[in-house]
Amino acid sequence: MFKTRITEMLGIEYPILQGGMQWLSKAELASAVSEAGGMGFITAASFADPEELRDEIHKIRSLTKKPFGINVSMLPVLMEGDITRRYVEVIAEEKVPAVETSGRNPEPFVPALKEAGVKIIHKVPAVRFARKAESIGADAVTIVGFECGGHPGMDDVTSFILIPRTAESLNIPVVAGGGIADARGFVAALSLGAEGVVMGTRFLAAKECPAHQNFKEWIVAAQETDTMMIERSIRNAVRVMKNEVAQKVLEMENKGATLDELIVYISGMVGKQAWLNGDLDSATIAAGQCVGLIHEVLTVKEIIDNIVTGAHQILGRLNGIMQ
Ligand SMILES: Cc1cc2nc3c(=O)[nH]c(=O)nc-3n(C[C@H](O)[C@H](O)[C@H](O)COP(=O)(O)O)c2cc1C
């Protein structure tokens, strides 16, 4: 049994969340995580039309009776115009249990979400943004470190520092992400003051993840040195797998390329195609340093069960050390 303010708040068995992953975290993956005792999140940005998101919410409800959430990413490159407001309307109307917001301050949407009883977990890469999230009424904050797949912010501070700094700075519960892929990272995050963890990269290599098998095999073979940071020059730093496109983008950035010149390589639509056709070198693909810790493609249930049993074993070992 695990009991933290996160398990209590979300009504879940284990404080293990699956972070939103555009194009990938749809009903199949998210429901598998919720069914296994954690909480899965569907990424709203995978659906061009908010009504398609509503259909996906109905789909996940047919796959699991357990709580799930929706990720609302608000990075300008992902979200134009008022589509975020329309996603939020659907989420509120459907009374989804929780949202994972990211990329921008979710303050304009807090009243509507609160009124609908939706728990707000805002994901940030820095302590100052975590404090801000608490001040505007977020129910919890997810802090992601420099190791994470996706966007770790611009400060280059690792999870080992950010988790305790965030936990000591807030009153609301903290979820930790970035570099967590197994029981060791899970126990470490809880030791550092987190009350839950979020994982993205580990769930990429889950059987239920719709990513092409080539990506899963790449993760299993990859070392911790096989990711890299790009898009710093446009203040949209992102950790991705080290492939031909990422290296080209970095080279262009070093030569002063503009967003317009970069967009053909970094646009999400290119990534969508790659996830489906399995071409490892055609798009920039988010992945965290914990690829080096992932040695097998497993089912979501195996991933979560291994963390739970592994955590008990680690605690036993620690008790043996601290006599
Ligand atoms: C392939 C991939 C796609 C992602 N897409 C999103 C996204 O659309 N929105 C978002 O908020 N986070 C996104 N993330 C970040 C994850 O939700 C999570 O915060 C991160 O993966 C945690 O670090 P980890 O990769 O070390 O587990 C993505 C991560 C990966 C690996």
Automatic annotation (TrEMBL):
It comes from the Bacteria. Keywords: Flavoprotein, FMN, Monooxygenase, Oxidoreductase. GO terms for molecular function: nitronate monooxygenase activity. InterPro entries: Aldolase_TIM, NMO. CDD domains: NPD_like (cd04730). PANTHER family: 2-NITROPROPANE DIOXYGENASE, 2-NITROPROPANE DIOXYGENASE-LIKE PROTEIN. This is Nitronate monooxygenase. It comes from Candidatus Abyssobacteria bacterium SURF_17. The lineage of its organism: Bacteria, Pseudomonadati, Candidatus Hydrogenedentota, Candidatus Abyssobacteria.
